[in-house]
Amino acid sequence: MKILVTGATGHLGSLVVEALLQTVSAGDLAVSVRNPEKAEALRAQGVDVRQGDFDQPETLEKAFAGVDRLLLISTDGDNETRIRQHQAAVHAAKKAGVGFIAYTSVVNAEKNTLSLAEVHRATEQAIRESGIAYSFLRNNWYLENEAGSVQAATQGAPWVHATNASQVGWATRSDYAHAAAAVLTGEGHENSVYELSGKLRTQAELAAIVGEVLGQDINVQNVDDAAYADIMKGAGLPDFVVSMLVDMQSAIREGALAVESDTLETLLGRPAQPLSEGVKAILGK
């Protein structure tokens, strides 16, 4: 059985490959990357490194040839670009005869009010319409998304957010990667939809965990959208990024990520990694 991971040199993809190599021989694993030279370390381990560019669909069909199970990791970019790239990948997978697609989506994709959820709804629909067996890995928020706030806290900065007491199911990127690896190597996951979340917590509760790791009290500031935007602009972020972040805070405040589920731990076959350990990893401890 040949398993292929897209975006294998990225943050999530590299962790998935690392997890797969714990149970799968390198000869049964392939990766699709835009720049193969960045994956030379994997090639040296015996992994089949293939060139695949989401903006050049013809390369994807070649990259997916002979693949039984594909992990399609969502790309970066604006919504229109990502939808186009994902649909090209699904079409290429269909033409290449791929038998199973696992796709990294977002929790509660059908109704999620995050702007990025549009990408995941469109991609899930494309996969369903392809007729290829699938598993939608609907990931909640990566703890690593809060790395900027964690690093700022080490300098005594306040923990600023605009989400009130809304909850988020943070988990480490490593746990999401291991869950994906479990689906790719396991049986009985055809046409499944998995809501993957850690324990629900508020921003204040996460800040308290960070404070425990740092051994200091963190000043948590819950502000409105306008104040949040001003603070982000003051940090030097460009306007389009600030607008995106404000939209995210608003959706999270409305409960977009308050999806409770124990499916992540079920797939892992163990408890989720403590967030304190994830914070230490962010800090390089």
From TrEMBL:
InterPro entries in UniProt: NAD(P)-bd_dom_sf, NmrA-like, NmrA-type_oxidoreductase
Domain named NmrA-like: residues: 2-254
Domain of life the protein comes from: Bacteria
Protein name as it appears in the record: SDR family oxidoreductase
Organism: Paenibacillus taichungensis
